[in-house]
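Data card: per-record layout.
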Amino acid sequence: MSENSIRTRNIMTASAMAAFIFVITWVVRVPLPFAPGGYLNLGDVPIYLTAWIMGGPYAAVAAALGSALADLIGFPLYALPTAIIKGSMALIVGFLTLKNRGRARFVIGCVIAGAVMVAGYAIFETVFLFSFDFRLAVAGIAQNTIQWAGCVIIAALLYPALKPAEKILKR
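The structure for this 171-residue chain is written out next.
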């Protein structure tokens, strides 16, 4: 396969995954009773899966675009930090699974990426939304921690479904 056809395939796959990440983030919402208007989304699951399948750079673009587009519709203030945080998550999982593609390494990557997500939003909210009053960011930390745990568990359960994609996409 030529370099151009590989690049084209990767761009097409990343575009499709960005759309998939957007749809899962925007459509699959779990309302939180303790946070009026707040919800969990499962958008991190396709981010983790995309990072494992494609590797960090293409997955980072897909994660940043898909997630930021979902925020542009509902929470535009979060779009830029979301792009940075979600892109970073994909880079982490992609990098950690570059050489070792096993389930344990995948789950470790997801756990670390989820921690980056919780910390990233806590920093953004504390500094830019709550004028350095960390107490106000605590509810967001609780919500993001629940999302982190749930998405890591779901991604770990879906890991066996990734194996056929590895043969097709060969990163």
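Known properties of this structure: The chain has a mean pLDDT of 91. Strands lie at 29-31, 39-41.

See the next section for split statistics.
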